[in-house]
Amino acid sequence: MPHLVVECTDNLKKDAQFKLLFPKIHEYLASTQLFPIGGVRSRVHWLETWEMARPLKNEADQTLEYAFVHFVLSIGHGRSLEDRKRVGDAVFELIKTHFKPLYAQRLLALSFQMNEIDPVLNYKQNNIHALFK
Is 0.70 surpassed by the pTM of this model? Predict the structure, then answer.
């Protein structure tokens, strides 16, 4: 842990550039020394079927196209609220900075949440951690 899972509308496929964003988030998470680097993972799920709000027409009588990106950072149990808040604030700033140019060009909803995983009902097996010891 942590795992970053992203849901993104498919109308952002050519512009979202997650290959540029994910390394920045991984670097930040590693720099906090709160998470084992061997457990940091990020992935995006492209949504082909989705809807949000209702289509509107702009002044030129064109339908406005909406888009959204929703991030969920799941972390293991045991960090303080202060640490979680600091990490959440920093990760959301990285997200907002990354999407700032796209946000200025189109209708876009960005959202981020952090989940703390139950300490008992969390099952995993990973031999990657040994590489980073």
Answer: yes
Main-chain phi, psi angles of 17, to 5 degrees: 55, 55
- pLDDT tens for residues 1-18? 899 999 999 999 999 999
CA–CA dist 111, 48 (Å, integer)? 18
What residues have CB less than 8 Å from 133, skipping those under 6 apart? none
Residue pLDDT, tens place only, 24-33: 999 999 999 9
Q: Is 2 known to be catalytic?
A: yes
E strand residue ranges, 2-81: 3-9, 41-47, 68-75
Considering the candidates 2, 36, 101, 119, report the single residue annotated as catalytic. Answer: 2
